[in-house]
Amino acid sequence: MNKFSYNKPKLDIPKTSLQKIFDFLTIIIFLAGMIYIISVWDQLPDQVPAHYNAAGEVDRWGSKWELVLLPAIAVLMAIFLTFLEKHPEWHNYMNLNESNIEFQYRNSMIFLNVIKNQCVLLFVFLSFNISQVALGKAESLGILFLPIFLVIMFGTMAFFIIRSIKQK
Questions:
Q1: Domain spans in the chain, listed from the N-terminal domain onward
Q2: For residue 61, what is the enclosing H or E element?
Q3: pTM of the full predicted structure?
Q4: Does residue 71 surpass a pLDDT of 90?
């Protein structure tokens, strides 16, 4: 094993315009979602959906205060993933060498950016759906939620992994 694989250099790679736009839009949607939750808080019953099964049906009800956990988790996860996004030298790579290091770092940074924003948007969607079910405006997440979510998440991972492997 060569020294390069253990001693990955730190490169100054700025965020792309697309990453900045995705971050900005996600923040706006997150804030709009939180404003919505705050605006309907007094209308929410004491018990709201707290868990869904694989078919998207509510299988546990809990205190409406549990709804506060979703945005809190989203914020903590976004902070952590943003921190990791800024340190691509800490990430694991296949086929990393001097000729592709900048591409691999950028690919990894964009991957984390996309996953981070998808997760935050997921938590906003779940918060909104929970409030809609609790208010009687919806019945469930729907049977298509889980397959669509899995295709998006695993599709994103596959895209960036394949992109990384192709860049030898």
A1: 15-166
A2: strand 58-63
A3: 0.89
A4: yes
